[in-house]
Amino acid sequence: xxxxxxxxxxxLLYIAIVPFILASAIGLFYFVTQxxxxxxxxxxxxxxxxxxxxxxxxxxxxxxxxxxxxxGNVGPSLSLQNINPTLNPTIYNVSSNTLYLTRGANSPxxxxxxxxxxxxxxxxxxxxxxxxxxxxxxxxxxxxxxxNKQSYNYSKTFYGGSSLRL
Length: 166
What we know:
166 residues; alpha+beta
């Protein structure tokens, strides 16, 4: 007798196992894809936050005075007197959830890309009389989730501070 084939039981067993394996593979692929998207979103927010912090710190350190907020106060914008007169004043402010930098008579320039929006920006002038100026600040960056997918939801609050170098 020739036994070159599958029995009915073997065929039914394969039919039951194959969909389970395929469903597991599809689920794993979906999980990996969503994790990759989430990591890209987190990296984008972190990179934009670090760029903003670096830029604000450099501006503060290359300034000779703080115009606003005034000593001991907190405000939603920062105005600095730059050492270079052509860059006076140097202003950071938010409009339509975008952080802008204006230097002197130049047009305002956005400080981050259009994938991010900024909220809760606060500058605190921590200067004391007869000391160099000190500014601390905080802001929250949100990834813009136009597709309403959970993996695109991400928000992070950043904190920083710097002193004038006179």
